[in-house]
Amino acid sequence: MTPRNFREDFPILKREVHPSVPLVYLDSAATSQKPETVLAAMDEYYRRNNANIHRGVHVLAEEATRAYEDAREKIARFINAEKSREIIYTRNTTEAINLVAYSWGRAFLKKGDLVVLTEMEHHSNLVPWYILAEQTGIELAHVAVTGDGLLDPDDYASKLARFPKVVAFTHMSNVLGTINPVAEMAAAARKAGAITLVDGAQAVPHMPVDVQALGVDFYAFSGHKMCGPTGIGILYGREELLKAMPPFLGGGDMIKRVELGRFVANELPYKFEAGTPAIAEAIGLGAAVDYLSVIGMDVIHEHEKALIHYAIDRLEEVPGVKVFGPSADKKGGVAAFTFDGVHPHDVAEILDRRGIAVRAGHHCAMPLHQKFDIPATARASFYLYNEKAEIDLLIEGLYEVKKTFHS
Ligand code: 7TS
Asked: N or C: which end of the chain has fewer CB within 10 A?
């Protein structure tokens, strides 16, 4: 299949903006667009099967429950979890990480215990740990990022030498695009006696991920960045760890039994799924997994590799543009850049007038921007439906920025 075929699967990519400029969507790191099959699966669910799950014995309740649980099985296979009960539905990556920090953290960490994070984390893998630190007195350390946007391996080794209890880091940076050596880092963490949590928000949508081969304990990601809907995310956790954890939220579905004054928690995965969940969204995510699987994650990864190589080469041609992060061979399809003397919001605004959607700001990674001593960057990010011609349009837009501000 060519990229052109992928584009045709996404109705939104046919629309025009302002009012008749074709849309060039280069903001998939924020959220991806949705293929027709995902939209249809959710529509079909509401039109034919809508019912609450795990409760009713009627036909619709059984159909809805089966579809919801089938999606869990698909997601388990997609990341090669050993068991589908290791797949917990959450709202998003953020909630998945909060679940671990809240439940595992409060049960197993005490004052003085060390949690190792990195300087390239999204706020969602920083703030839950900072909240925990305020409440429990755990210590925090952050692995340094080098000038070329990689995690410093010597600094990581020195942090592990302090025998942390948890090491939590991103699989791929949403700003630098850096793909971290997860298997190697997880093995070293395990040797030091730490459990690992990996933020896979930017990885699962874009490359093959096998949680068993990576050897991680927890792995979090969001449906909306991988062609699925908003409101659904996943926490993968090794069964042994999930079993030992207390519930995160209490209410319906997460209990086996309640008496006045006490409760018995349900089995996995339901122990962590309190209340009526995002049923249509889980089914939509299952459809997204089907869609991506048919294409093949290796095909998607290769396509994006070609795009990022091309994008970096072309961006570096533009006088005044500085791209952050490692060389193209060490990164995924994300290019964050500054433009000499022009605020990233002005860059984004000029591009937007040409129908080109990029994001400008700190991308929820303020400490990383502080590290590089910049308040913000503009960021173009790619997915399976993007093509080189769109990068050419981005570059033309940047020459207009140059003309507007530098002449
Ligand atoms: N982790 C990483 C690496 C991310 O890129 C994001 C979202 C999250 C966690 C949080 O995901 P959520 O679904 O829970 O919100 N990143 C971005 C971004 O780069 N622009 O908008 C959202």
From this structure: C
DSSP labels for 206-227? TS---HHHHT-SEEEEEGGGTT
Residues 60 and 184 in one domain: yes
- Interval between CA 239 and ligand 1 midpoint (Å): 26
pLDDT digits (tens, 9 = 90+) for 72-98: 999 999 999 999 999 999 999 999 999
Structural contact between residues 347 and 398, judged by C-beta atoms closer than 8 angstroms: yes
User: pLDDT tens for residues 219-242?
Assistant: 999 999 999 999 999 999 999 999
30, 61, 192, 364: the catalytic one is 364
Give the end of a domain, one of 243, 278, 294: 294
Locate all alpha helices (DSSP H) within 318-363, ordered by sequence: 344-353
pLDDT at 407: 67
Q: Tell whether 368 and 224 lie within a shared domain.
A: no
Whether residue 107 is contained in a domain is answered as yes
**Which residue ranges have their beta carbon within 6 Å of ligand 1?**
29-30, 92-94, 122, 124, 170, 174, 199, 201-202, 222, 359, 363-364
364 counts as catalytic: yes
Do 323 and 290 fall within a single domain? no
Q: Are residues 115 and 46 in the same domain?
A: yes
CA distance 73 to 70: 5
Residues in the chain: 407
Q: How confident is the model at residue 60 (pLDDT cuts 50, 70, 90)?
A: very high
Is 34 contained in some domain? Answer: no
- What is the distance in A from the centroid of ligand 1 to the CA of 132? 20
